[in-house]
Structures are given as C-alpha cells and as structure tokens.
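Re: beginner question about structure tokens

> Can someone show what the tokenized structure looks like for a real chain? I only ever see the sequence side.

Sure, here's an example I had lying around. Input first:
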Amino acid sequence: MSLKDFTIQTLNYFKNKKYPVKLNNNIFNPLAKDTILFNNSGIVGIYEEFDRYKESNYNSLFTIQKCLRITGKHNDFNSIQDSEIHSTCFYMCGLFGIKNYNAEKLIRDIYDFITEFINKDNLYITTHPDDTFFNQIWKKIDSNIRTEKNQENTWTTGTEGFNGQCTEIIYCDNKQDIEIWNIVHITHIRTNNKDTELKNKFLDTGGGLERLYLLKYNLRSIYEIPEYRTIINRFPNSTNIKNKKIAIDGIKSIDAICYNNIPVSNNQQGYVLKKIIRRT
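And the corresponding structure tokens:
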C-alpha cells in the first residue's frame, strides 16, 4: 500500500467513527505568520478553532496535517542522517477535542486504531507523576497496559500559549522505543510567564503518519516507504545512505515550501528554503 492510500484509509477510519475529517497539504498558516514560520504540528493548522472555540463548527475534529520541523522548538533538521524515524517534512495525524467532547471516547478511538495493526503487548504509555486525568481514562480503556511516569510529560505551544500535561503511546521492541501518539490535555494558557486556567479544556493529539505506516508494514525505516524508496533507487549504489536520506528529506521540504509560492530570500521562510537547498 502506498502512503497516499494509507492516508485515505486513515481518514476514512476516523470518518466512520463519525468525526469530521480534513487533509491539509499547506505547511504555512497565514493566521500564525507573526508567531511561527511553518505548521509544525496538527494544532497549528487549526489553532483558530481553539482560539475561538465558542464560534467553532466542531466539537471534535480529525486532521492529517503536513508539517515542517526545521526551526524553533521543533527542529529535526540535524536528526535526519542518523535517524530512521525522523523527517523535517512529514504528515501529522490529529484527533482534537474542542468543546462538548468525550475525552475517553477520543483516546479510545486512537487506541483502537493503533491496535488494529500493532500488538498491545508491544505498547506502553507514559503519564506525568502528578497526573490524574489520563490515568483514570487509561484504566477504563485498558487496565492491563504498562504505565511509566515521566516528569517531562508536559506540553506547551511555546514560551506563550496553550499548555498542559500529556500522555504518550509508545511502541517498544528489542531495538528501540518509538513514540506513536502524544495526547495533551490543554488546561492552561501562558501569557507573560503566567499560567491561567482555561474554563474550556481542550484535547490536542498527534501521531506521525509515516511512523504508523512503518509499524503497520514492519519496515525498518520511514525511508523504505514506497514513495521514498522510488527516489532512493534513482541514486547510484555508491551513494552513502545518509546522503540519500538528506537528499530525499530536502526534496520533500523544498517541494512543500515552494507549493506555497515562497521564494528564496534572506528572511523567514525564504531563508529556511535557502538553507534546505544548500544542504540538499
């Protein structure tokens, strides 16, 4: 199955669960132009739904968002050549609770989707030591799942903005642990280094589509995905595999930026484009 077909299959899965679904190939959100260069997570692409939740047409929503992580808090630019699961340009699955949603149902639907093709014995979850919200939900969904406490299980959009504790679904085998899906209970907003509790709490979740594909089809690397393998096969056999990965990652990122008609320049998105071209 191609990544494109897997994308459609994933959208249809959550559509059949009665969620509105969206696919967004645009890595640039004009509404966030003053605070962020590119969409680096699913929530950035629909941030206005949270910011203006009372006017939102959605209680919950599933999206697959093309992301670019090459600047700021999220930056995978230097991880590519030594990683089999990282890419600066990738798709992020996200199931979001905006208002009047059932958090247990959303998390259960994510877990059911994952365990359709991953053995439960290969999964464990992490939660914050002070968490009560997620622990209660996981006991109802799968009381036998292994749980680990992690002090770092908090999330924020940046120096300011939404934040809260999170739980992660981790795939574990003899070789490595792979984070599959991160689920954040957004309870506060930070302004001027001060956290204020939100009256309306949100659920922000994200899972890398390429990683899910890798695990479903038992691949060793996301660069074995058919669309990427086709490009790799065009390189001479003598080309170092690390250089192949850097080139493929660069091609994807350049294509994503140029899709938005962003020219090479010495500022903001244009400078990032120049940086990727130089490396590629």
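Each token stands for a local structural state, so reading them left to right follows the chain. The chain has a mean pLDDT of 90.
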